[in-house]
Design the sequence.
């Protein structure tokens, strides 16, 4: 993509963000610089995916997700629906509660003009996308305790406390959680069984409002970073906490950190996952990475090779 040429952008705005007084002048400014900017505003679930698929079909050069992690996920699904070689790149203007993916790549909330100017002139990098069953995720999929926290946090609490809401709900939820009986099958066919308290599968590094759940994840290395926290007695939670802060240590007893291209997880009871913050529940999950499948205009802090 020629970064000196004028670009055709289609901005897909989450309906909740459309009223931001900074967004309209930011779009006008980018138009005045000579770029073509179309705008689509979502009304209900599925709109962002449909708009993104239309943009890809129309030959739009950059489709911009103006929203949170869920909007990025929906837009990515739309871009990836085209089976042909993808020519449309993605970019982001963060507007969500946590904005974990945008923050993790160095694009901060509150300056839509800066984010749009990056979308109009920034370089494109092909990044990996995670896939579980028929769903994709760009940033992180969390499961078990972590996913239950995200799902049960009331929207008004998210709005009032931001990322801190997840910590508060985590304290409440932890007392009620029972571990999941799970079976992991790695790409080598080796099966591991055990009790799962929480897990994260990272393409990106952070979720839940800024927590580094996969601190060594790289967006274009062809691997998923898998973190599993195994069940422990209450008296061992101090050890668990210490291992969470040292996830990659080979001496860990309760926290496992692996980099793999694919694996299967089976649970004896329905397990709650969150794919980029969007809920998904099942008992069998086939994870794999789609290497360098999504062109993305990243910020200056993106963890890439």
Sequence:
């Amino acid at each position: 993509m020629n970064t000196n040429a004028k670009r055709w952008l289609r901005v897909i705005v989450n309906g909740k963000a459309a009223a931001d007084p900074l967004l309209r002048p930011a779009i006008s400014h980018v138009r005045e610089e000579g770029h073509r900017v179309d705008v689509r505003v979502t009304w209900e679930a599925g709109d962002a995916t449909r708009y993104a698929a239309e943009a890809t079909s129309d030959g739009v050069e950059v489709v911009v997700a103006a929203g949170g992690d869920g909007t990025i996920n929906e837009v990515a699904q739309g871009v990836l629906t085209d089976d042909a070689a993808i020519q449309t790149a993605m970019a982001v203007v963060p507007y969500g509660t946590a904005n974990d993916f945008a923050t993790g790549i160095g694009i901060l909330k509150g300056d839509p003009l800066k984010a749009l100017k990056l979308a109009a002139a920034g370089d494109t990098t092909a990044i990996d996308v995670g896939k579980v069953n028929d769903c994709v995720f760009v940033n992180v999929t969390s499961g078990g305790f972590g996913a239950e926290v995200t799902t049960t946090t009331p929207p008004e609490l998210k709005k009032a406390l931001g990322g801190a809401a997840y910590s508060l709900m985590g304290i409440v939820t932890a007392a009620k959680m029972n571990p999941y009986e799970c079976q992991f099958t790695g790409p080598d066919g080796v099966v591991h069984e055990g009790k799962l308290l929480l897990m994260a599968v990272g393409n990106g590094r952070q979720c839940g409002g800024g927590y580094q759940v996969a601190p060594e994840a790289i967006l274009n290395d062809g691997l998923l970073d898998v973190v599993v926290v195994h069940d422990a007695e209450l008296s061992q939670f101090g050890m668990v906490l210490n291992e969470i802060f040292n996830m990659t240590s080979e001496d860990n007893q309760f926290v496992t950190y692996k980099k793999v291209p694919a694996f299967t997880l089976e649970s004896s009871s329905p397990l709650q996952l969150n794919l980029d913050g969007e809920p998904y529940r099942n008992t069998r999950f086939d994870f794999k990475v789609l290497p360098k499948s999504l062109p993305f205009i990243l910020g200056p802090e993106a963890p890439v090779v």
About this structure: The mean pLDDT is 87. The domain at 135-289 is CATH 2.60.200.40 (Tumour Suppressor Smad4). Residues 223 and 261 are 5 Å apart (CA to CA).
